[in-house]
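Q: I have 369 residues here and want to know how they pack in 3D. Can you give me a structure?
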Amino acid sequence: MELTELIRQHIRENGPLSFRNFMETALYHPELGYYMSGHDKIGAGGDFYTSCCLGPVFGAMIAKQLAEMWRLSGEPEFTVVEFGAGNGWLCHDILDYFREYTSVYERLHYVIIEKSPFMRESERTHLHEKVCWHNDLEAVGAFTGCVLSNELLDNFAVHQVVMQDELMEVFVDDQDGLVEVLRPASPQLKAYFSELNVELPAGYRTEVNLEAVEWLDKISRYLQKGYVLTIDYGYLSDEFYKSCRSRGTVLCYNRHEVNEQFYHHVGKQDITAHVNFSALCHWGHQHGMSCCGLTSQAEFLLALDFKDYLRKQPNANGDIVQLAIQEARLTRTLLIDMGSKFKVLVQQKGMPNAQLSGLRPLVQNARPT
């Protein structure tokens, strides 16, 4: 049975489904969800690209920042916990960077939190040592290190709300097909906006990512000392709730094309929502994690000497023209195309007040509070 039919059957038997639960089912149904099924999702044959698809330089820059975090921790061992490692290339490139430093590499621990069996198998094809997999952070226990995510939070299932006379939540009903209906929003959803001091105008539609709040809560319980490094697309609240985004930020990706047809191709296309970085900073602070800074991916990579590292990489055939073409392609994609779209947020717990190299472009009054 198709996933759409399973959802319609569930609605007929149990009543309308919140958009949040619809999105969760579309992405993570055990057999038919987008991320749980066995087709390629990343790269030319999939539905979208990530920065890791473009070669090892992106992973090397992340590793360089992780090495500095480790040094600042003052601890002999360091654990990287990567959530949702995709096809495993970022982990592969980070480990390659550390492998050049044997004594350091031996004391590095790498954990991937991955609930999709298909994605685990994809990751294992690139990762043959040093890595262990778990379904949840609880299995890792207390650790010192860094929680790393690259394009993870945009795939957390979100509640959709619309401001009318009161805040209403979007539910999905079956009326000879999937349609949207509105119901009064829960106190928890209303409190989300109160916490952020956000007042939505009449008719405004947006999202609430309560899963991200729960994610930060869980991290705070197991991260004893270290950092949370989050790479994703999104905005601070002032930008997130602008009038130009009055329809919300939820989008679908299907074969590298963007659409807003949430109820078509259910389970066969990606569904994403932009990240509210102000919310991450706010709830991180409530859970004992202060914000080190927020910057663009371009600024982050440049601050870590991305271009210098790229030019020092060996060229197999010594072709200077090909090397220049490759450098131009990576610079345009990682620094301009993806570089302006993606943001890098770093939060810390129990660490000294030292500026990280990847955040050097920031000025003090640009840091979110």
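Q: Anything worth noting?
A: The mean pLDDT is 90. The chain has 13 helices and 16 strands.
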